[in-house]
């Protein structure tokens, strides 16, 4: 492993504007060498533009791009030690697989490419297909050619622009693991752009969630999921139930909130908004963290748990779990996922229930944001 | 009734084939009459089988000269129109610039103009300039009316090309010149070839514009026109048949070669 | 971090689709310059010369001078309105016939030809490579007075009908309007078939199945689904046929008689034989203006602006 940090990507204050439209607001970002970094967001959020500025295909309106210690901001793409796996692959249709993979080597004046190309094709298990044209390969094979074509150049950083977008679900899963394996093997920095939150979380060490040309939050997948700091992140990554609540008092490390007549407890450390008594906060809880108890058994719920009452509006059985929609006074579409371990036959639509969860799983967000940010986009994805 | 059902189901096919027959009938006649031995000066009525004209295709005064002149003009017109047209097509697809719609109209208009209007106006220009009518005025005219067709053919191809391909080339260490030569040009090639082929056919076959601007120069279509008045030698049919056969053979070979190449690679 | 700005509605969702910006701002102009210069000098400028010639008076011996003599236009219209009318009606008839004949063939190639598709395409295009004059002359043989076509039509009494309609004269087809329209149709048929085929080929075959699934009979499917979807091809096909057919004089000259002269014949004669340049220029200008007017109205009404 190299130790000169030449595989770091440092973006300082880069932005991109088209006329009056700002695609990327001034952005600082450091991707450490050897990491698998994902830029996640809905289409039009600026993630692809950011990637293209690293590749050199787009010139930043301001700011600089550094690879290690080298300032590459004004270098054209063909002079940057960076390669891209393009969306829908952009394999050259007039060249066969071998020549596609050899393209970068030949352009750099390397004469004997045969051995390298063959080795690379073996790595992606396409040795047999060397003389075929791209259109004769399946989507998954084309994708592997695109990866091989980029990797053979030993780039400092590999950029992947929605590399799995064109594949079907099963193949996508398979390629996610495959890419992860290749990244571990070659050890170079991967910067991966995707709109698929599951893909980002499966593959990346670090995920930056982008929205409206800004990075909303940056962190490890688990951190982003458990501690979202904005409603967009809470809704875009998985599903969140968000309730508006009023701050009642502070009690040690906890904040006590009032919502719909009941009291909820939120650890101070998990609240990203300033909480002053009388102020508003959005309380969030993930659906799988909630337990559901029939109203008749309400007494059996242990003390100290946050609880809400409601009525089951809908229940769908999906195998590993059952997903309920609960109509409650504070929120009319409360999502609850219950593992199918012991099913309570009384939990059918119309039943009165108590929802309860550990205060430690509660998070608090600034109430000034749109409560449904990131939800429609998620539906599209 | 099964016959009626059959007829109903295949009505389109029958109608289409009849149209095809209508399209090909004159070529059949041209071919058959290339083996005729006409009585008078005109080759319109069947008399007697003869291969005389095939044995002596250049036996008519001035005909082969006009043929060679037409081929030369068609060649240079193709070169000129393809070059200029391809450049315009690239500019139109790849760049944003002022007066785009004016440029588009200027390219569309020659295709939407009856030939006789272009022919007449071009002649007015040449007369006003005092230009010597002949090879050069014909060539100028042919490049002018072929240009638009090349633009359309190349533009369609370049527009359907994924811009990411060129980005991929630049990403893979190809500079601007390399990108153009290794990626852009090969991918645009079928469009350019189609435009060139069309130019050649249009130029070679043009009569109306040529007739106005040729002066005393005689191209092959003008020779045929003149012979329609003076008498049509059988050799005209020989040339017509040969051209048809060459064209069909050319296309068939390129198709067979293309198929075989694809099969080998598969 | 909060959301302060919603993305603009015209956000470039996929920046890759835009024409890339290059550093050389002048590059497009250099690319355009030679070709456009050619078109300006040898296409646009001649139009202006022609406009100027049409309002000149004088004689070949003494030379011509611009006198703004617009009466030339009036005289040209008065003298040659039958030829204008004839041009438009012959061209319209030929265009209608082309559509009628060409559609089934285009449909056949697009949907029914299977592995014969390429061969039929070649057969449609290949005649292009034989000089159209030679092929037009072949119609003289086909439609000859003693030929089988005239004989058959005669014995079926079709010629009596067409004679009564004024399309043919007596027992002849040659040297009649029918022969000219037949030649025009033949000459411009490929210009109808190719655009029709292009737009038919783009239609997803499953649309036919969907229409059938939704209780449309084949004919209804054609009227409600296939034909509307092929409209771009119909529009460009009719234009590509009608425009050159209107200005054509070859068919009228080779297959017609003095009674079938079209406006192209008049312009040609005025220009090349009578050498009355102002009249010829005026006629040509009227033809151009008329066609541009018709084309514009037609394109507007059919709603297909994107022909280039």
TrEMBL record, chain A:
Function of the protein: Part of the ABC transporter complex PotABCD involved in spermidine/putrescine import. Responsible for energy coupling to the transport system.
Subunit composition and interactions: The complex is composed of two ATP-binding proteins (PotA), two transmembrane proteins (PotB and PotC) and a solute-binding protein (PotD).
Superkingdom of source: Bacteria
Nucleotide-binding among keywords: yes
InterPro entries reported for this sequence: AAA+_ATPase, ABC_SmlMolc_Importer, ABC_transporter-like_ATP-bd, ABC_transporter-like_CS, Mo/tungstate-bd_C_term_dom, P-loop_NTPase, PotA-like, PotA_ATP-bd
Annotated catalysed reactions: ATP + H2O + polyamine-[polyamine-binding protein]Side 1 = ADP + phosphate + polyamineSide 2 + [polyamine-binding protein]Side 1
The keyword Disulfide bond is annotated on this UniProt entry: no
Limits of the ABC transporter domain: 9-237
Similarity remark: Belongs to the ABC transporter superfamily. Spermidine/putrescine importer (TC 3.A.1.11.1) family.
GO molecular function, one term: ATP hydrolysis activity
Pfam family name, one: TOBE_2
Keywords linked to the UniProt accession: ATP-binding, Cell membrane, Membrane, Nucleotide-binding, Translocase, Transport
PROSITE patterns xrefs: ABC_TRANSPORTER_1 (PS00211), ABC_TRANSPORTER_2 (PS50893)
Protein name: Spermidine/putrescine import ATP-binding protein PotA
EC number: 7.6.2.11
CDD domains: ABC_PotA_N (cd03300)
PANTHER family reported for this sequence: SPERMIDINE/PUTRESCINE IMPORT ATP-BINDING PROTEIN POTA, SPERMIDINE_PUTRESCINE IMPORT ATP-BINDING PROTEIN POTA
GO CC terms of this entry: ATP-binding cassette (ABC) transporter complex
Automatic annotation (TrEMBL), chain B:
Cellular component terms (Gene Ontology): plasma membrane
This protein's UniProt keywords: Cell membrane, Membrane, Transmembrane, Transmembrane helix, Transport
Membrane topology: Multi-pass membrane protein
Protein name listed in UniProt: ABC transporter permease
GO biological process, one term: transmembrane transport
Stated family: Belongs to the binding-protein-dependent transport system permease family. CysTW subfamily.
Subcellular location: Cell membrane
Keyword presence, Membrane: yes
All residue ranges annotated as the ABC transmembrane type-1 domain in the record: 67-257
Record-linked SUPFAM superfamilies: MetI-like (SSF161098)
CDD domains cross-referenced by the UniProt entry: TM_PBP2 (cd06261)
Transmembrane segments: 12-35, 73-93, 105-127, 133-154, 180-202, 234-257
Pfam families in alphabetical order: BPD_transp_1
Automatic annotation (TrEMBL), chain C:
InterPro entries: MetI-like, MetI-like_sf
PROSITE patterns from the UniProt entry: ABC_TM1
Tagged with keyword Cell inner membrane: no
Residue ranges constituting the ABC transmembrane type-1 domain according to the UniProt record: 84-298
Compositional bias annotation for Low complexity: 1-14
GO terms for cellular component: plasma membrane
Residues passing through the membrane, by range: 29-49, 90-111, 118-138, 174-197, 280-299
Top-rank lineage group of the source organism: Bacteria
GO biological process: transmembrane transport
Chain spans, region Disordered: 1-21
Subcellular location: Cell membrane
Keywords linked to the UniProt accession: Cell membrane, Membrane, Transmembrane, Transmembrane helix, Transport
Family named by the database record: Belongs to the binding-protein-dependent transport system permease family. CysTW subfamily.
Protein name as it appears in the record: ABC transporter permease
